[in-house]
């Protein structure tokens, strides 16, 4: 395999074959946050948490999908890059925070009527066909489940419409599907 030498945080490193910048970072122990990346799925580029900076151009790259170039200088930990990573993670956490406002999973003493109603409403967003269960309230829009459905299971039955939670392709309710 062909190797590429590039500079990562002031240190010359090697990328081999089709290594992404994130692959190299993980191999040498440099932490770059990545919410939607899973090695078996490859880059999804949805969470934008794995942003790194190309020092020479000043541009920001998604480490999960960017392949290093010979002599390229990449920084993962300068203040501007860390700020961009933090904002991306905050965006994911805000979606998770919205998902976790459901209150307790069952009605108990101390649960307000509003919490009970909210829990009921959010659970109404659950679709289930016996094989797949989707709770839209828990979705942080990372895309991993849809990618795994397509790339690992070869099912191609889930989609992640822009700025929405995962759903069966075409918006079909799971109970109407035949895969039981």
TrEMBL record:
Keywords: Iron, Iron-sulfur, Metal-binding. Gene3D superfamilies: 3.10.20.740, 3.30.70.20. Signal peptide: none annotated. The keyword Metal-binding applies. GO terms for molecular function: iron-sulfur cluster binding. SUPFAM superfamilies: 2Fe-2S ferredoxin-like, alpha-helical ferredoxin. It holds the Pfam family Fer2_4. Residues 130-160 form the 4Fe-4S ferredoxin-type domain. It comes from the Eukaryota. InterPro entries: 2Fe-2S_ferredoxin-like_sf, 2Fe-2S_ferredoxin-type, 4Fe4S_Fe-S-bd. Residues 2-80 form the 2Fe-2S ferredoxin-type domain. The keyword Iron applies. This is 2Fe-2S ferredoxin-type domain-containing protein.
